[in-house]
Amino acid sequence: MKMTTHIVKFLPHETEIEVPDGETIIHAAMEAGIHINASCGGEGVCGKCRVMIEQGTVEGGITEKLSLEDQDKGYRLACQAIVKGDLAVRIPVESAMDASALRMHKTPRRSAHIREMNFDELKEKGLFVPPVEKKFLQLPAPTPQDNLPDITRLISYLNAQHDEHRLDVALSVIRKIPEAIREKDFEVTATLVRPVRDVGKTRLINVQPGDTTRRSYAIAMDIGTTTIYGQVIDLISGDVLAEYGDFNGQISYGDDVITRIVYAEKPGGLERLQEVVMKTINKVLDKIIKKSGIDHEDLSTITLAGNTTMTQLMLKINPKYIRRSPYVPAATLYPPTRAKDLGMAVGDHVSALVYPAVSSYVGGDIVAGVMGSGIYRTEELTLYLDVGTNAEIVIGNKDWLACAACSAGPAFEGGGLKYGMRAEKGAIEDFSIDPLTYEPMIITIGHVRPKGICGSGLITMVATLFEMGIIDNLGKFNRDLKTPRIRQKDGIYEYVLAWKDETQIGRAVTLTEIDIENLIRAKGAIYSGCMTLLTEVGMSIQDIEHIILAGGFGSYVDLEKAMVIGLLPEIDPDKVTFIGNGSLMGARMSSLTNRIRKDVVEVIKKMTNFELSDTSSYMDNYIAALFLPHTDINQFPKLKSRLEAHKKN
Amino acid sequence: MKMTTHIVKFLPHETEIEVPDGETIIHAAMEAGIHINASCGGEGVCGKCRVMIEQGTVEGGITEKLSLEDQDKGYRLACQAIVKGDLAVRIPVESAMDASALRMHKTPRRSAHIREMNFDELKEKGLFVPPVEKKFLQLPAPTPQDNLPDITRLISYLNAQHDEHRLDVALSVIRKIPEAIREKDFEVTATLVRPVRDVGKTRLINVQPGDTTRRSYAIAMDIGTTTIYGQVIDLISGDVLAEYGDFNGQISYGDDVITRIVYAEKPGGLERLQEVVMKTINKVLDKIIKKSGIDHEDLSTITLAGNTTMTQLMLKINPKYIRRSPYVPAATLYPPTRAKDLGMAVGDHVSALVYPAVSSYVGGDIVAGVMGSGIYRTEELTLYLDVGTNAEIVIGNKDWLACAACSAGPAFEGGGLKYGMRAEKGAIEDFSIDPLTYEPMIITIGHVRPKGICGSGLITMVATLFEMGIIDNLGKFNRDLKTPRIRQKDGIYEYVLAWKDETQIGRAVTLTEIDIENLIRAKGAIYSGCMTLLTEVGMSIQDIEHIILAGGFGSYVDLEKAMVIGLLPEIDPDKVTFIGNGSLMGARMSSLTNRIRKDVVEVIKKMTNFELSDTSSYMDNYIAALFLPHTDINQFPKLKSRLEAHKKN
User: Fold this and answer.
1) In angstroms, how far apart are the furthest CA atoms of chain A?
2) Which of A273, B92, B241, B504 could form a disulfide with B232 if both were Cys (CB 3.0 to 4.6 A apart)?
3) Which CA distances in Å does B107 have to A24, B205, B464?
4) Chain B closest CA to A374's CA: distance in Å?
5) What would the mean pLDDT of B427-432 be, rounded to a whole number?
6) How far apart are the first and last CA of chain B?
7) Of A148, A216, A137, A214, the residue nearest A180 (C-alpha)
8) What is the CB neighbour count within 10 angstroms for residue B268?
9) Which residues on A lie below 8 Å from B327 (Cβ)?
10) Is the dihedral of CA B497, B499, B504, B507 positive or negative?
């Protein structure tokens, strides 16, 4: 189904952009890089974002902030007016904006292409090896002359009719079989789980009365430090039938992996954390199983991916030594386990398959992302980046993979800022600034008056302020600018994004130099991590041909802005892909095909882990990255030429 | 250590017997086939068993029943006098016993040779394949340059130093390893469980701090319908360190497998029976683990053998269809299971290995007996017989094995008789009769006044009465005999073994014609079972070269008597071996060597099961066997010639 789109032309800039039907004009302007003064976040109360509709029609955009006369002239509030056809929209040049200012408008917003998993593509690429197969059988009833044990009868017919041999039988099947085969007069369906390796044995995990061959399901789960996601997957169609995410109950015991490990070291702490995460897992399982309407008996496997600490906690393995140098995990490969033994509220026959890790800080979530994103199969040199409180970096292609983890701090998630917040309603997520008046244009999530700043908003703000010359390459405000928006408070310079009476919090929302410093350190840690990996393998950042972003962070970040601040290397935005929850995608893929589970063992062997803190070049790279965008501006040639063009004006 | 023995010569019979030091004279007489009137069971109160010590010395045997004059003459009570040197003992011929009566004395008591398992012999025969091996390792401590995961470190050194590869790792090991390897400064012992098949993988099941290689144990258990036995086995020496048996708690829910199955079919019944048997198992485990002083961490496997119903109940598999034609078990091969999952109070790492069965009524206990007795490796045509309420029969050798089960009823365990009892204190276990006076000689277990008759006593009585001509080949008393010992009560003929005032029960203890009938039916079922198996494979009972008796029953039965009643075919008693609890012996053997576990899969394939009720020749064979010893006396040539000799006298 193709989306209806319209062309919006902004005047006097003469800039056009294609937007989906129903988009607001202010969003379209932001996407196109057109500044419109706006300080209420899109709620329609400041009345500053007046635009004139010169051609075409919009819906809404009329409020008491507009006089009837202005309404008649075609003025609308950009934050309220909805695009319903091709438009020409004039931005009123109320201030003395000159030609140079027009040329200084920011780069159009560029978010990453979203890539979703495609089951048919997996099949086409020869990556499909069914992990579970169901076989229907009509068995003869036993007689005195033919009184084979029930399980032997089933196996001998599986052998004769389906050429199945060397089967391992689960005790739970033996427990079920006497009633299962008699319930529908010796018509039964056997569920066979295939070995990952060819030398392995097929495992008979279930037997059901009648023909259930068309009902075969698996569950994929991402066990995040903060959130746990689950998906029910139809193993025949490849479709996701239900999905649900919930906060990891362990949050009450600490925000990050370190505090969780500390808790786990207390007496009973590990057991408690395992119970708590299992409670969340069971809540998610219950929701998605009910939502999809599947029968527990038709579920075969649960594939889970999480970072090394989450994995060890879930498996009740003490993570104590993960947080102590030299950062040794108990294991990186985990045996298949009965899901029920871990505490999951599913049938006896269901296996829990846990993604392997590479090291204490490059966990199964990243390995899953590598498998899900396909980086291990690409020719192109690819950077895979999963940014949260920790950032995990993988660089490589089908021949080699280098990986590292670094602590980015909470800035990308809106943490640690004066007015930082998660990407929730009221968070300023988009920002532009008038190059002459320094008045802002802000859009908040939910189009309400602002409450704070989220991670993607922070990146956009810092990049915009830097490119406009309002902050320097150290992130310090230009002390010479004459505007009430830039002020000192408690001795710290800050930019006022919204005045006290424009916010929801009864105070002004500002961006401080300390916030900017936090961001610089965060992006510096990641960029220098990438640099270090590349240096260690004898390559440079210019060699990167493709970037894959994973994690919540990547979903809305403006790629151009991320390059301006030096978080990402400069690259054609078309070469940046967003895969969403990479961990969940990887778990889903290995639910669907054993080929992934087979490959993963080879892939983790191929993944060379670098402990950045033990890699001598890392500190030098880090210090060099504590600038906007970097000490070495030549690594960002496009930005360099733009900055030089600005200077000439 | 050789036992001290003495020669006892009985006069006037001129019969000599070698007996162990400390034996009573009455026992020596019974063994030698010499009749001495005795009706108090050996308690010394009837005073009938006076004998004269003509040469040598005895201890004891003097009571108030002997006058001082008689004591001076050398008279002693045979039941109280203890052999302490070579003796000549004269039996007083107070009655008119003539020469013919002397010649009619019964055959000497012959019990089966006891064979015990010999670990060294297993090794010599090339049957030793270690099932568990412990490896000690001194690992280097991790450093920033060498921060392998703990388990990877262990495995890589197992590989480098002990050439171990392709290891499966249990989750419980991953849970233990972080603390285990650090507790004794990276000195650890790894426990490896070997695969039964060469293509299998070795399983790393435990890791312990320090060097524990000299402590490696397994447990063998026999899960009987009535009794559960367990043994702790030292896997290095092969020794049994502790043994204990206790009544199966399921007895409260029914005496035999059928009543247990009926109970298991009730709602919650299966779960209840599983809990109850597990409670007994845990009691036995606790006793033997404490008694042997082993550490739970040094225990690797528990091997269990039981009949098919006991096995299914223990594994929580509904045995419903075992008791319904065509008698189909759920399975005959059971996967290795975590002992803890079944409810056993042992470590996470301990596996429960359950002996496979052949059919619903030839269970893992018999298969274990076949493995333990070595019948599957013999050249000789061997009859393996395990007699309890059910009798299981295996006939064959290394080339083929035929097996069947038949219901013998409780007679062999003293059940279903007017004065029947288990082989406990007060049970008449040995019997002789004066051919002229018909006065009995009885010995009870514990040498106390009689309470009843146990299985082995019953066989001896019936055989003796038949050979003396007191009962005929239908088991009916000779109505012409004039003796108060044979009487009619409530219309049924019976023989008075002990008068009212000689017993503990305030009534006479008697043997009735109905009791004899029960025994004839029981032995007939077994003998005809053997006949049928032999007929089906085209052989005859004379072809049997060796008999192996298993089960409590075989321990004390007089072999000659068993041949007289037609329970066993006539064979040189030296060719009869008693192995005790065959099920436990088999469990112990497969605890000690994987070779048995490997062979057993082939052996059960080789074991052809005959459902006797569905085998047409069985009923004919059964009817022919309802005589003493059999319709066809020619099958018992030695007895035939003895009977003919008696007639001539």
Assistant:
1) 102
2) B241
3) 113, 56, 9
4) 26
5) 92
6) 46
7) A137
8) 10
9) 147
10) positive
Q: What is the average pLDDT score of chain B?
A: 92
Say if residue A392's pLDDT is above 60: yes
pLDDT in tens, B269-280: 999 999 999 999
Residues A10 and A27: beta-carbon distance below 8 Å? no
A173-198 pLDDT, tens digit per residue, is: 999 999 999 999 999 999 999 999 88
Q: Is B202:B166 a contact under the CB 8 Å cutoff?
A: yes
Predicted confidence (pLDDT) per residue in A56-76, tens digit: 989 999 988 888 899 999 999
Q: How confident is the model at residue B45 (pLDDT cuts 50, 70, 90)?
A: confident
Q: Where are the beta strands (DSSP E) in B56-201?
A: 58-59, 75-77, 82-83, 87-90, 113-114, 132-138, 167-169, 187-193
Bridge partners for A411 per DSSP: none
Tokens 């830039």 locate to A486
Strand partners, A202: A167
**How far off is chain B from A165, nearest CA to CA, in Å?**
15
Residues B297, B301, B306, B310, CA torsion sign: positive
Six-digit token pair at A501?
């009476």
- CA B353 to chain centroid: 22
Kindly state the tokens that stand for A146. Answer: 């033919």
Question: Does the structure show a pLDDT above 80 at B552?
Answer: no
User: For residues B460 and B558, is the Cβ–Cβ distance under 8 A?
Assistant: yes
Per-residue burial over B123-158, b if 16 or more Cβ lie within 10 Å, else e, is eeeebbebbbbbbbbebeebeeeebbbbbbbbbebb
In this predicted structure, the answer to whether residue A403 has a pLDDT above a threshold of 80 is: yes
The reply to whether residue A335 touches residue B168, judged by beta carbons under 8 angstroms, is: yes
**How crowded is the C-beta side of A83, counted as CA atoms within 13 Å?**
24
Nearest residue in chain A measured CA to CA from B354: A171
Give the closest residue to B367 by CA, choosing from B309, B281, B308.
Answer: B308
Give pLDDT tens digits for A339-381.
999 999 999 999 999 999 999 999 999 999 999 999 999 999 9
Quickly count helices (H) and strands (E) in chain A. Answer: 18, 30
Q: State both tokens at B48.
A: 């009938």
CA distance A470 to A513: 12
Are B149 and A321 a contacting pair at CB < 8 A? no
Euclidean distance between CA atoms B119 and B477, whole angstroms: 50
Is the Cβ pair B152, A331 closer than 8 Å?
yes
Q: Could you tell me the two tokens for B427?
A: 């049970």
pLDDT band at B95 (very low <50, low <70, confident <90, very high): very low
**Residues from chain A contacting residue B168 (CB–CB below 8 Å):** 335
Tokens 């989306």: give the residue. Answer: A3
Determine how many CB atoms are found less than 10 A away from the CB of residue A501: 10
Residue with tokens 């060498």, as numbered in its chain: B146
Chain B residues whose CB is inside 8 A of the A175 CB are 315-318, 330
Q: Are strands A217-223 and A299-306 parallel, antiparallel or unpaired?
A: parallel
Cβ neighbors of A482 (< 8 A, separation 6 or more) are none
Beta strands in A521-619 (DSSP E): 546-550, 576-580, 607-609
Beta bridge partners of A578: A114, A549
Tell me the DSSP string of B542-597: GG--EEEEESGGGGT--HHHHHHTTSS----GGGEEEEE-HHHHHHHHHHH-HHHH
**pLDDT tens sequence across A206-224:** 999 999 999 999 999 999 9
Cβ atoms within 10 Å, residue B528? 25
A621 near A526, Cβ under 8 Å?
A: no
Closest Cα partner for A285 from A226, A325, A242? Answer: A242
